[in-house]
Design goal:
The protein is α+β, with helices and mostly antiparallel strands and 142 residues long. The chain has a single domain, classed as 2-Layer Sandwich (60s Ribosomal Protein L30, Chain: A), CATH 3.30.1330. The strands form two sheets. Strands 1-6-4-5 form a four-stranded mixed sheet, with helices on one face. It has a two-stranded antiparallel sheet with strand order 2-3.
Length: 142
Amino acid sequence: MKKLLELNLNYKYVIKPLKRPTVNWRTRSISNGSKEDEEAVSYDTNLQISKEVRQEIKNIFASKKDIAVTVELVNFYATKDKKKHGLPKLTVPDASNVLKLWEDAVSNGQLYPDDNIVFSSQASKYWAETSSAKVKVCYYEI
């Protein structure tokens, strides 16, 4: 695989769903957080991507080649307890729910056309002095 592009996105808040995921058994669908959460993440992601990078992403997918994507998300949750800084956060929300919310927010064509091309994803959460989130997205030609 050949790496085509690497994006590093920084958010000044923790990416997290405000609502717990719910299952609708009649429609067999899962709601992961609220639409407002997704819209906020989508908007902030959009602000971080320059026109040049946006065009480069379009060119990658216009090339008709097989493209694969990896995503790494790290959330940092604020705490005043300095002993906890850098330690893993072992309370809610689940890292997988946070990652899914972020993927749903940007899979509208912003960073990739559909989240089925993500072949590897990783989410982690740590305690820190201030709340923030970092996301690394890499594009590969197969």
